[in-house]
Amino acid sequence: MNAVPEVPANATAQDILRLGIEAVQGPVKLACSFSLEDVAIIELAKEAGLEIGVFALDTGRLNEETYEVADALTERYRIKIDWYFPKHEAVEKLEREKGLFSFRESLENRHECCHIRKVEPLGRALQGLAGWITGMRREHNVTRTDLKAIELDQLNGGILKLNPLLDWNEAQLLQFVQERRLPQNRLLQQGYRSIGCAPCTRAVQPGEDARAGRWWWENPEHKECGLHRR
User: Fold this and answer.
1) Where along the chain is [4Fe-4S] cluster bound (predicted)?
2) Does the N terminus or the C terminus of the chain have fewer Cβ atoms within 10 A?
3) What is the pLDDT of residues 147-158, one digit of tens each?
4) What residues are annotated to the active site?
């Protein structure tokens, strides 16, 4: 099992990445949803000369604009993205038995859909890795306020989980992306601030937090898909 390194209070995002990569002594990949956070992490890693892999989960219900960002990243950085898909038998069974929008009927149904489309593929994506990187930030939601820079992921075999942008705020993130002219999802210009599957994502209203548009019919404390169980 990996040991969690001590992270100085003043550590930068690149410091966190470097400390985590050195600590795991094995393959590390970014779980990329093509958000501003993920794009920023790829840029930071490239700038620091840090070798990380990139994987993505194609749930089958992503927006076209999300695929455009993926294409732009492969073109800009010449990186290989390892795509993982839900098992088609499970998707077919779910949609035949419960329809196309069962996830809006109950929290249990929504968790079932997320498990099939995200959680199970994530398990396959993490196999053989010593660590993984996320774009989670404490500012995102009440479910993420106790986030650590580097933590032990007991639910995924005790590998290390790196959260280099945990203390970045949204203004800081936007400034970084805009100054470097990094690829951005076109939906951001339409009021979307956190983008997941198309049927479960909407633009946010003035005064709402960034993740208010995710599963907007649920209470804030429920707004996780299961990828980041804490």
Assistant:
1) 113-114, 197, 200
2) N
3) 899 999 998 999
4) 225
